[in-house]
């Protein structure tokens, strides 16, 4: 495994991040534990989750699975850089009572204590804001975070799904307060097919020293060889992936992508991950394996070296928007 610093911090993290969103909804507790053991054995030390994972009536279940794994001991907790998130409504289904979601100081305090209990730990390495809260000023958010840092409940704060201007606003507010490090990471949607983060989000993250953590690196499976799998009678796509495949332009790009990699004898999913590891500012993509074999495929991507010729060809298929303002102005 290869390691890098998380943004401008001194924290060393693996170039692959183990995403746990499938733990509970799709992968049972025993298999989830086995995947986490395999990830740790392979050198992955950066695990990502969120308080809402488990979804619906099972919100929080994923954190509980991670907590039961930590409870096994063997320095599992000590070896892991743990990230979780706050924002989603954690009230019971149909409960519209206020202050059970978003980023008020009250909800942050309530949510972090609940996550710590589920995770069976006394601190969270990276506490991430899962979405922008337009109704809560950053002065209030940073006050709440400073208290948690002082209490030793969290070490760093990060963002997820923030536009570039909110990254700037958050860190400028932190700078004015003078007693907080500000955001150290941004977790955003970024992959070969979806490159809009290159316009403003990634430049803002680089300017302020945030590590970029791409989520959905295979774009819901579309970059994992979906055309070939369809032809072989494999698992059919559904939801957003099916809608995307119905778009003729998207399908044409994916066909060209898979044909290109077939000529080079490369697996599409591994190339999609390896490409992200070449991108400026990227700490490491989040991989969310449902099975041990999917984890093994992701691990191979870390050692995959992409030639300049192949990178140029990928840019021709998936050109991206370019930086702002050149993406929409002269």
Spell the H/E element sequence.
EEEHEHHEHEHEHEHEHHHHEHH
Largest sheet: 8 strands, parallel
Mean pLDDT over the full residue set = 95
Tell me the strand order in the biggest sheet: 9-8-7-6-5-4-3-10
Q: Helicity range of the residues?
A: 40-55%
Low-confidence stretches: none
Distance between the termini: 42 Å
Kindly estimate the percentage of residues that lie in beta strands according to DSSP: 5-15%
Rounded to an integer in angstroms, the radius of gyration calculated over CA atoms is 20 Å
- Number of DSSP helical runs: 13
Q: Structural class given helices, strands, pairing? A: alpha/beta
The count of strands amounts to: 10
Principal-axes shape call: globular
């Amino acid at each position: 495994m290869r390691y890098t610093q998380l943004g401008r911090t001194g924290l060393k993290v693996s170039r692959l991040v183990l995403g746990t969103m499938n733990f509970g909804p799709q992968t049972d507790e025993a298999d989830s534990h086995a995947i986490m053991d395999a990830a740790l054995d392979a050198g992955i030390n950066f695990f990502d989750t969120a308080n809402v994972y488990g979804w619906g009536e099972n919100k929080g279940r994923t954190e509980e699975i991670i907590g039961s794994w930590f409870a096994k001991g063997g320095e599992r907790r000590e070896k892991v850089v743990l990230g979780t998130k706050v924002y989603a409504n954690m009230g019971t289904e149909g409960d519209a009572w206020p202050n059970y979601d978003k980023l008020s100081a009250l909800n942050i305090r309530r949510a972090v204590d609940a996550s710590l209990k589920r995770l069976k730990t006394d601190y969270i390495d990276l506490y991430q804001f899962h979405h922008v809260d337009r109704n809560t000023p950053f002065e209030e958010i940073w006050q709440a975070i400073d208290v948690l840092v002082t209490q030793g409940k969290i070490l760093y704060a990060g963002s997820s799904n923030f536009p570039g201007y909110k990254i700037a606003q958050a860190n400028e507010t932190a700078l004015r307060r003078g007693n907080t490090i500000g955001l150290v990471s941004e977790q955003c949607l970024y992959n070969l097919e979806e490159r809009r983060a290159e316009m403003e989000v990634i430049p803002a993250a680089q300017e302020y020293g945030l590590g970029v953590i791409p989520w959905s690196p295979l774009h819901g499976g579309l970059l994992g060889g979906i055309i070939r799998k369809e032809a072989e009678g494999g698992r059919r796509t559904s939801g957003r992936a099916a809608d995307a495949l119905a778009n003729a332009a998207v399908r044409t790009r994916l066909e060209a992508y898979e044909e290109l990699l077939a000529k080079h004898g490369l697996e599409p999913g591994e190339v999609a991950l390896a490409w992200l590891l070449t991108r400026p500012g990227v700490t490491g993509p989040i991989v969310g394996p449902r099975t041990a074999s999917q984890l093994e495929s992701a691990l191979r991507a870390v050692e995959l070296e992409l030639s300049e010729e192949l990178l140029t060809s990928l840019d021709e298929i998936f050109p991206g928007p370019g930086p702002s303002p050149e993406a929409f102005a002269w």
